[in-house]
Amino acid sequence: MAAQSEVNFETQLQPEQTFPLTQNELEQFHTRGFIGPFTLMEPEEMKANWKRLRLELFDRTRTVYRDAQPGTGVYNYDRHLDISLLADIISRPEITHRMASILGPDVLCWRSEFFPKYPGDEGTDWHQVDTFGGADGIPHITWPNGSDFGGAMTAWIAFTDASPEMSCMQFMPGTQRTMYFDESKGMHYDPKKENRKEINGVLRGFFGYDWRELQKDPNWTPDESQAVSMPCRAGQFLIFPTTLMHASTPHSARTKDIRLALAARYVPTSVKLYDNMKESNTVKELGGTYSLDQYGAVLVSGRNEYTHNRMRSHTTRGKEFVNSNSR
User: Is the link from the previous residue into 241 a cis peptide, with omega within 30 of 0?
Assistant: First the structure.
């Protein structure tokens, strides 16, 4: 049955189908800072694809970060650059058309990250991300001077159900315009911190880091009374900027099932990626390091008229990436 559920994403949708945000949706997004969930595929289809993906993730012969250390948070970064299923997902028009409504017509997918939560795992602590340099203080992305945006736009894609008892996302509406954290401070990594700390009675952490080390005001605390929980079914996705205050609930372990999500990160083509790593050609975060030798951003919408970023037109296995919103 699983084989029958796997689809060719390139042929499933008709060319005339478009998915821009409506004016009302855009107004809601800019007010609250997030929107969704939207349906990418039906739950049965996504769960079947997750079964297939689990096997493909073990094959690292074509991953772009073969030097990434097992057990670190970066071990399965950017697998859309070698796995066809993920290459299709990050390029899906249901996602990229909506991203273009927010970011403008010319859009890159510059990163993807898996976020698994196992039974009993802590919730991810409240945080905002502007430069993606919180681990060592070195910015990974640089927006042009005068830009209204910062951070990256995220499509948080649920591969499994994500209920409040199974690590669903949480947001604090309207916080995307004020940064409460300073990533230039850097953080200290200690894997022993995981699943050890309760904050206001809730088991929370950040993958071996303490994001609260980055607070501009050490006496400030997030107002959790403003938190909104956003459950998703498998196959649904949420859109939000990383500068929005966000977190996830703990996995209550009422079920033995994993909660798995893929976060695909999008920016306009004008944003510089890894500009501060040109000399070292190495990124350090989440307890690991990786070389950028084979890295490249993917054009998923419009045109790229800049030359400041490394680009990939195909996966490492030769599959061409789809631009469903070319102009």
Answer: no
